Amino acid sequence: MVVESFHGSPCGSDYDAEENVSEIAITHFISKMNIHVNDVNYGAFMETYRQLHHHVSWSQMFQIRYQLLHIQKNGLFNAHKNLLKKLNLICASYGDILPLAPCAPTTHPPSMYVEPLMYTGARPPETRLEQLAQELYNIMQEHTPNGEPMLN
Q: pTM for this structure?
């Protein structure tokens, strides 16, 4: 015959002390001796535990999915920003043949993408180069914060 003794933490009443020691004994029997306690609440407890586990799993899956989408969004945002910067540099470097020129920033907050450009050609454009410049200018304006495309 094996006799085991259990010691709980100090409590304010005899009832609380008995509950404390009983909880320790039950925990010991469940974990060390592979005893299963199937009380009145066990079915409801296991159903609640199963649902909790299910929802925690879904929550973790959605958190991972959100993190992946956030990384993907940042990658697309940076690619968009880099494309606009490259397009702006091309437009500025061909300022000798295209009627596009850098201009002073507006009173709006400065664009985080590119330096502002200004179309300096005829309105409406008369030559093919002016049409190309207007199209490039419109692309830059449509895809830059606070940008407004030029209408014919």
A: 0.55
Q: Per DSSP, which regions of the chain are E strands? A: 100-102, 117-119
> 4-62 pLDDT, tens per residue?
888 888 888 999 989 999 889 888 888 888 777 777 888 888 899 999 999 999 999 99
Distance CA(40)–CA(113), nearest Å, equals 65
Gap between the terminal Cα atoms of the chain: 100
DSSP secondary structure string for all residues of 109-134: PPPSS---EEE-S-SS--SHHHHHHH
CB 35 within 8 A of CB 46: no
Q: Under 8 Å CB-to-CB from 37, ≥6 apart: which residues? A: 26, 29, 30
Structure tokens at 59: 């929550």
Of 133, 136, 134, nearest in space to 150 by CA: 134
